[in-house]
Amino acid sequence: MGTTQPGSVQEPKYWHLKTVLSEALDSDFTVGEVLPNERDLAARFGVARATLRQALEQLELEGRLQRRRGVGTTVAPPRVGVAVTGARHSGAADDADEAWQPLDCTTAEAPAAVCAMLDADAGEPLHVVRRIRVAQGQVVAAELLYVPASSVPELSGIEAPSGPVRARNVVRELHRLDLVGQDRSVELGSARADDAKELDRLPGAPVLVVTTRYLAPAGTAAVSVATYRADTCRLTFGDSGALEISHEEQERRAS
Q1: Pairing relation of β-strands 100-108 and 126-135?
Q2: Cβ(103)–Cβ(186) below 8 Å
Q3: Cα distance between residue 131 and residue 144, in whole Å
Q4: In what order do the strands lie in the sheet with 126-135?
Q5: What is the pLDDT of residue 97?
Q6: Which of 34, 58, 66, 245 has a beta carbon 3.0–4.6 Å from 233's, enabling a disulfide?
Q7: Within this chain, do residues 87 and 14 fall inside the same structural domain, yes or no?
Q8: Using one digit for the tens of pLDDT, what is the confidence trace for 46-88?
Q9: Residue 90: inside a domain
Q10: Residue 33, domain extent
Q11: Computed from CA positions of residues 106, 108, 112, 114, in that sequence, does the dihedral angle turn out positive or negative?
Q12: What is the pTM of this model?
């Protein structure tokens, strides 16, 4: 079986076009400007529309372009810098958590994957908190926070059985727990219909999925699945190990 040397791999046409388009975005377009339609762009650069679509998709993934409902493809603004953190071990909410806006809270059964992370039975009732994260006036993330009823036994079921008030109460009780740590993972995904609506994205658009397990002495106290706009956020890790979102690269390009 032969081997392929790195120097022998030919650059795909769409990748070369992506570089050309990126330079054109810097010189010929401004932030928020709507790009010409695919037919005109393909003719301008002398490529097939299929090649053009691949290049545009890559630029969207890199945060240079945005596809907006009823508008078309526009030049993306600089990425928004956001710190991704959770409840402090001391039991108080931190500044990042205060940036989450509660939308609703319901009682439901969690997906099988979440049940596995919680080590919970499939039929165990869970509080499902739905929140959005806003930074610099823009919605950058949508979250589903799964909290077993056993994790927040002091929560009263009489007052505010659902809605934003109930969501705040669940998060408040979670903060009161003696949390001992967090376990976080990040992966690239595609926006589900509900997430896409909250984030003003098209279904299937690239997103960053941050899954966090909140750990208590007795086990996993809650699981958060937060979906961030991949075109808006770039994830970085600081010296402390805390996960942050930075727009440093976009700021450099814009300056």
Answers
A1: antiparallel
A2: no
A3: 7
A4: 100-108, 126-135, 138-148, 219-229, 206-216, 181-190
A5: 52
A6: 245
A7: no
A8: 999 999 999 998 888 777 888 777 788 888 877 665 555 544 3
A9: yes
A10: 6-75
A11: positive
A12: 0.68
Domain shared by 89 and 195, yes or no = yes
Q: Based on the structure, what is the number of domains in the chain?
A: 2
Taking only the tens place, the pLDDT of each residue in 155-198 is: 876 677 778 999 999 999 998 888 888 888 888 888 888 888 88
| Residue labelled with tokens 């908190």 | 129
Q: Is residue 1 part of a domain?
A: no
Residue 241 is classified by DSSP as -
Backbone phi and psi for residue 43, each to the nearest 5 degrees, phi listed first: -65, -40
CA 9/CA 58 separation, integer angstroms: 19
The alpha carbon dihedral of 246, 249, 254, 255 has a sign of positive
Over the stretch 89-144, which tens digit does the pLDDT of each residue have?
333 344 455 578 999 999 888 788 888 898 877 777 899 999 998 877 778 899 99
CATH number of the domain where residue 113 is located: 3.40.1410.10
Q: Of 155 and 223, which is predicted with more confidence?
A: 223
Q: State the Rg of the chain over Cα.
A: 21
Beta carbons within 8 Å of 166's beta carbon, 6+ residues apart: 104, 105, 127, 160
With cut-offs at 50, 70 and 90, classify the pLDDT of residue 40.
very high
In this predicted structure, which of 98-102, 208-212, 238-242 has the lowest mean pLDDT? 238-242
The two tokens of residue 244 are 């942050």
3-state helix, strand, coil in the chain (%, to 5): 30, 30, 35
CA dist 164 → 149, 160, 222 (Å): 17, 9, 18
Cα(148)–Cα(144) distance, integer angstroms: 13
